[in-house]
Amino acid sequence: MLNEPLALDLGIDIDWLRSPAGIAMLVGNEIPPGAAPVAQAYAGHQFGGYSPRLGDGRALLLGEVLDVHGCRRDLHLKGSGRTPFARGGDGKAAVGPMIREYVIGEALHGLGIPTTRALAVVATGEIIRREQPLPGAVLTRVAASHLRVGTCQYAAALDDRAGLERLTDYTLARHYPDAARDGVPALALLRAVAKAQASLIAQWMLVGFVHGVMNTDNMTLSGESIDFGPCAFMDAFDPATVFSSIDHQGRYAYGNQPAIGQWNLARLAEALLPLIDEQQERAIELATATLHDYVDIYNAHWQAGMLAKLGIAMPSTDATIVDDFIEIITAQRTDFTASFRSLADSIRGTAPSTTIDDTPAFAAWSRRWRAALSPTDLASIADAMDRRSPAYVARNHLVEAALEAATAGDLSSTERLVDVLRDPFTSRPGLETFAQPAPREFTDRYQTFCGT
Ligand code: AMP
Ligand code: MG
User: Fold this and answer.
1) For residue 270, with 0-12 CB atoms within 10 Å meaning exposed, 13-18 middle and 19 or more buried, which class applies?
2) Which of 12, 31, 194, 216 could join 149 via S-S bond, C-beta 3.0 to 4.6 A?
3) Which one-letter DSSP state was computed for residue 426?
4) Element spanning 44, H or E
5) Quick check: CB of 89 below 6 Å from ligand 1?
6) Is 45 in the pocket of ligand 1 (CB under 6 A)?
7) What local confidence, expressed as pLDDT, does residue 388 receive?
8) Atom of ligand 1 minimally distant from the CA of 83
């Protein structure tokens, strides 16, 4: 699968990418002239436990390209073979999980959420051994960079102050050139990453996205979403939603994501502490204040985002309208995506009722909601609501069906799904099935697996 819009954005010739030379590069058999691929080292807290040396076990950073907008982007292969960080792994990847990365990256991008994206997924023709034999593939990932919280943890653990300083300066220059000018670089970096992650995680929450494995090595310094293994979009609203087969404690459940973001940032702060201030107490004080700011920034994004989804102008005079709505959809386990679209339809008058059951609690809330809306132009409020709440998300049953077909060699469902997800806010006739929740039996049993 080749991501033609992304190739255009990168200024890479599509015909060349489809040629034998292009494919040789996309599977890692040919190195582009002048490139010196590297497997990056990083550490990371996985499910809370620290691993001092993870690194790219099956991935290679091919190099960087300047896209047509002049932005520097990493080209990175995943599934291209063993590296010195492979430990017991075979260095390979299967078609299904790599297609998942492709679909989710395009889904988030279509929603306007910062994300790494797949340029291509190329089947290798090799059968790889997992629980069952599976066709192998290599993913070419495009990212603002592959610098992670775990990259800083790795540098800090080496006790190489100069190296950590270089990493800090480099990251600031690459991702936050404006922040680079204010004061102590390490503190500027911590603040910038906290701000970017607060915004990112709020955007996930506002569309019901569950990342599934927010280990510190899967959290970027750029603020892009990365590493789509056991991720999924939630349908029935429930903060405890977790899809990953190995997340028994619900550490990475939907409702825990903002707090886990802060936990991960605390690990970043620890790594940067010696550079924040010579006096440890002072460094801790400054870092702690930043971690508190993260909560405020996150809450502001969440509130503003929810009010926009509900069509209510800021500032709202009804202080608990968002929280009370969440309480109702939690109690009813309403389909998160469909609920906002149906609220918009209800004020347009095109749908007599909403997907939310008309309980006394909802009826009372609904009266408050209507009172909070500016009554002058309900049609344009409904349109504005639809621009903040997608009609189409990568629904789990559709993703699974596409992955299954792709594994069997048929990419048509994946192509169709990606096509729909590239324009998720515009309802189109004929796409009704893409807007519908999965059958309850499917959702109740649905589990995702790490893409190893
Ligand atoms: P992930 O779950 O993709 O974030 O991967 C966690 C770590 O395991 C990273 O260091 C990966 O490079 C490594 N890893 C995952 N699968 C494999 C594999 N099949 N072979 C080698 N390393 C792997
Ligand atoms: Mg990872």
Assistant:
1) middle
2) 216
3) S
4) strand 44-46
5) yes
6) no
7) 98
8) 21
CB 105 within 8 A of CB 85: no
Q: Which pTM value belongs to this model?
A: 0.97
Range of the domain at 157: 149-308
Residue 246 domain flag = yes
Within a domain: 27? yes
The pLDDT tens digits of the residues spanning 153-195 come to 999 999 999 999 999 999 999 999 999 887 899 999 999 999 9
Task: Look at residue 444 and tell me if it is in a domain.
Answer: no
178 and 300 together in one domain: yes
Ligand 1 binding pocket includes 244 (Cβ within 6 Å): no
Q: Is the CB of 101 under 6 A from ligand 1?
A: no
Same domain? For 284 and 266 the reply is: yes
How many other CB atoms are there within 10 angstroms of residue 208's CB atom? 20
Candidates 56, 217, 227, 386; catalytic one: 217
Ligand 1 mutation pick, 58, 85, 126, 226, max ligand atoms within 8 A of CB: 58
Which residues sit with Cβ closer than 5 angstroms to ligand 2, an ion? 218, 227
Q: For residues 449 and 262, give the distance between their C-alpha atoms in angstroms, rounded to a whole number.
A: 25
CA dist 300 and 311 (Å) reads 16
Looking at the fold, whether 97 and 117 belong to one and the same domain comes out as yes
Stretches where the chain sits below pLDDT 70 are: 352, 450-452
CA of 339 to the centre of ligand 2 (A): 33
Nearest ligand, measured from the Cα of 230: 1
* Tens of pLDDT, residues 285-341: 999 999 999 999 999 999 999 999 999 999 988 999 999 999 999 999 999 999 999
In a shared domain, residues 279 and 301: yes
Is 13 in the same domain as 136?
yes
pLDDT of residue 181: 82
Residue 227 Cα, ligand 2 centroid: separation in angstroms? 5
Judge if the beta carbon of residue 450 lies within 6 A of ligand 1.
yes
pLDDT at 376: 83
Do residues 125 and 178 share a domain?
Answer: no
Does 277 share its domain with 260? yes
Q: What is the mean pLDDT of the chain?
A: 96
Q: Which of 116, 143, 170 is the last residue of a domain?
A: 143
Identify the burial level of 135 via C-beta atoms within 10 angstroms of its C-beta, where 0-12 means exposed, 13-18 middle and 19 or more buried. Answer: middle
Active site includes 74? no
Distance 142 CA to ligand 1 centre (A): 18
Picking from 263, 292, 308, the residue at the C-terminal end of a domain is: 308
In a shared domain, residues 178 and 132: no
On the question of a cis peptide bond just before residue 33, with omega within 30 degrees of 0, the verdict is no
Give the number of whichever ligand sits closest to the CA of residue 81.
Answer: 1
In a domain, 442, yes or no: no
